[in-house]
Each structure stands twice: as structure tokens, then as C-alpha cells.
């Protein structure tokens, strides 16, 4: 039975303690490229949250109601990727229909949500934590929102950074890695404060 305390714990796990980008270091490639401006980052954050939520629900159902009864649990990664690909295609069609400019700004990274290691990692973590269906969906939503928050923070910092003079050796990728490292340190210390 899912209690309010267990749901709150799941939310904190998805959003803070097991944040894909700053704690688990999953999906860094898209994080570093997409986080150049707020608009693209917001669109990508919404897409990640949408796909992560739906894939969390469907992968849990597929695992416990199809793979386990048929004794083919070893196929879970293949099934999870197929489900994630389905939802990624759906979100891509929605964005293409309602915001072609956002689709152009996201470029290749929107279809690459299919192989986004954070989304697959979320589905696998839900199984590893042996969450119930409700807890799994809550974890999917909170993990997606946690990734979105980190991407938007980084995009805001990088937009402001474009207005200042950065030393030549630190331009682009090096300064981005330095900022991501500092954010990770701050984030992990914040998590430590919450747990005590």
C-alpha cells in the first residue's frame, strides 16, 4: 500500500537523490548541447518529462504483467526501448504539429530521447527499487521534472555567460563542464542537508 510518506520519499528520490544529470550523470550529452538557451531547454524538459512519465507507467506494466508471467524478463531492455521509442515518436509528432520552431531548435536531440540513458535508467531504477505502480509513475514524473529543472538552471547560467568575457581556453565546452561540476557539488550538498 502506497502511503503519503512513501510517495514523498519517491518524489525526493526522483527529483533530488537520484537526479539523472547531477547525481547519476546520465544524459550529459543532450544536457550540454540543449542547455544553450531557455526556450529549447524548456521544450526539451517538457518532452523528457512527458516521455519519462509515460514510459515509467508502461514499462512497469509490461514488466510485471507481460514479461514476468511469460518468464521472459531478460527481454526487459528491448521492450523498454521499444516503449520509449513509441512515446518519443508521439511527442515528436505533437511538437512538429504545434511548434515547428521548437522542433528545429531541438534538432536531432528530440529523436535521440529514444536512446536517452536517463529515461531507460529511470525505468530500470523503478524495477530496482521495487516500486509499486503508483510509486513508479510518481518517480517518472519527479525524475523528469528534476532533469528539466537542471537543464533550465544551466540554460539560464549559459545565457548570462554569453554576456561576459570568458578566457579563450575556457570558452564553450570547458566552461560548461566547470559550471556543471559546480552545480553538481552544490546539488549534492543540498541533498546531504535534506537527508540530515
Give the secondary structure arrangement, pairings included.
Blueprint (H helix, E strand, L loop, with lengths): L3 H14 L10 H7 L3 H30 L8 H23 L1 H7 L10 H12 L4 H29 L11 H23 L1
TL;DR of this structure?
It contains 8 helices and no strands.
Could you describe the 3D structure shown?
With 196 residues, the protein is an all-alpha fold. Helix content is 74%, strand content 0%. It has helices at 4-17, 28-34, 38-67, 76-98, 100-106, 117-128, 133-161, 173-195. Helix 3 (38-67) packs across helix 6, helix 4 packs across helix 6 and helix 6 runs antiparallel to helix 7. The chain is globular, with a radius of gyration of 18 Å. The two termini are 26 Å apart.
Number of helices: 8
Note the beta-strand portion.
Answer: under 5%
Percent helix, as a range, is: over 70%
Q: Decide which structural class fits the backbone.
A: mainly alpha
Order of H and E elements: HHHHHHHH
What is the total tally of β strands? 0
Q: Biggest sheet: strands, sense, closure?
A: none
Instruction: Measure the end-to-end span.
Output: 26 Å
Can you tell me the residue ranges where pLDDT is under 50 for at least 5 consecutive residues?
A: none
Q: How many domain regions?
A: 1
- Global Rg: 18 Å
Question: Top keywords for this entry?
Answer:
single chain; mainly alpha; 196 residues; globular; 8 helices
Amino acid at each position: 500500500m502506497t502511503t503519503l510518506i512513501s510517495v514523498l520519499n519517491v518524489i525526493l528520490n526522483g527529483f533530488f537523490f537520484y537526479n539523472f544529470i547531477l547525481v547519476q550523470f546520465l544524459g550529459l550529452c543532450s544536457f550540454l548541447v540543449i542547455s544553450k538557451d531557455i526556450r529549447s531547454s524548456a521544450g526539451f524538459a517538457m518532452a523528457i518529462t512527458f516521455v519519462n512519465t509515460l514510459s515509467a507507467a508502461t514499462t512497469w506494466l509490461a514488466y510485471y504483467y507481460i514479461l514476468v508471467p511469460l518468464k521472459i524478463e531478460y527481454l526487459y531492455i528491448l521492450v523498454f526501448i521499444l516503449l520509449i521509442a513509441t512515446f518519443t515518436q508521439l511527442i515528436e509528432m505533437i511538437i512538429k504539429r504545434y511548434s515547428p520552431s521548437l522542433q528545429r531548435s531541438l534538432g536531432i536531440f528530440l529523436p535521440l530521447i529514444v536512446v536517452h540513458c536517463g529515461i531507460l535508467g529511470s525505468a530500470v531504477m523503478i524495477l530496482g527499487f521495487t516500486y509499486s505502480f503508483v510509486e513508479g509513475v510518481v518517480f517518472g514524473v519527479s525524475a523528469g521534472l528534476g532533469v528539466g529543472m537542471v537543464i533550465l538552471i544551466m540554460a539560464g547560467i549559459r545565457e548570462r555567460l554569453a554576456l561576459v568575457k570568458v578566457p579563450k581556453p575556457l570558452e564553450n565546452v570547458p566552461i560548461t563542464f566547470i559550471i556543471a561540476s559546480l552545480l553538481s557539488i552544490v546539488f549534492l550538498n543540498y541533498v546531504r542537508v535534506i537527508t540530515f
